[in-house]
Design goal:
The structure is a single chain. The protein is of the alpha/beta class and 168 residues long. It is built from three helices and five strands, in the order H-E-H-E-E-E-E-H. Strands 2-1-3-4-5 form a five-stranded mixed beta sheet, with helices on one face. Helix 2 packs parallel to helix 3. It is elongated, with a radius of gyration of 21 Å.
C-alpha cells in the first residue's frame, strides 16, 4: 500500500509539473519549443563610463542563462532575445552627517533591457533595471569598485532573468 501511495504521488506531481510547460528547479518556466537565446553586448552609454562594465555585465547575463537553463546561447536571432544598454553609472553622496560630510557614497548602475520572445510575443518587455550599493565615503571608489560592480551585476542579472523566464 505504501508503494502504491508513492507511485500515485509521483504521477500526480509529474502531471502537475508537465501541465505548466517546462519547469526547472531554478524557477525558470520556459516553453519546450524555445531552444535558443541571443544576448547582445550591452554598450555602456552612461554619462560616466567604467571601461570594463559593458563586458562584465554582458558576460554575467550570458553565464546566468547558460547555467540556469538548457537554452543554446547563439549570437543573433535566438528564440529569446535580450539586448539593451547600460544607461547610468553614477556615484552620489548619501547619509550626510551634521558636519556636511557624507558618511556613505552610493554607486548606482541602471540598464535598459529589451526582451523579445519569438514564440510568444506576450512575454516581450522593455524595462529599466537599477541597483545600487553603498560604501564608506572614507574609501576611494577605485578600491571598492570591482566588488561593488560584481554585487550590483549579480542583482541586475537576477532581476532580468526573473522577469524574462520566471513566470510566477
Amino acid at each position: 500500500m505504501n508503494n502504491l501511495l508513492k507511485i500515485l504521488s509521483f504521477l500526480v506531481l509529474t502531471t502537475l509539473l508537465s501541465a505548466c510547460g517546462f519547469y526547472s528547479f531554478t524557477g525558470a518556466s520556459i516553453s519546450p519549443d524555445v531552444k535558443s537565446i541571443s544576448i547582445l553586448q550591452f554598450p555602456n552609454n552612461a554619462p560616466l563610463v567604467q571601461p570594463t562594465l559593458s563586458q562584465k555585465f554582458t558576460l554575467a547575463l550570458r553565464d546566468k542563462f547558460a547555467s540556469q537553463t538548457n537554452l543554446n546561447i547563439i549570437k543573433t536571432n535566438g528564440d529569446l532575445n535580450i539586448e539593451g544598454e547600460i544607461s547610468d553609472y553614477s556615484v552620489q553622496a548619501v547619509a550626510v552627517q551634521a558636519n556636511q560630510q557624507a558618511a556613505l557614497n552610493r554607486l548606482t548602475i541602471t540598464v535598459k533591457v529589451r526582451f523579445t520572445n519569438t514564440k510568444n510575443n506576450k512575454q516581450d518587455f522593455e524595462s529599466s533595471f537599477s541597483r545600487y550599493r553603498d560604501y564608506d565615503s572614507q574609501k576611494d571608489l577605485s578600491s571598492e569598485e570591482k566588488d561593488l560592480i560584481d554585487q550590483i551585476n549579480k542583482e541586475l542579472v537576477e532581476d532580468i532573468f526573473n522577469k524574462a523566464v520566471v513566470n510566477w
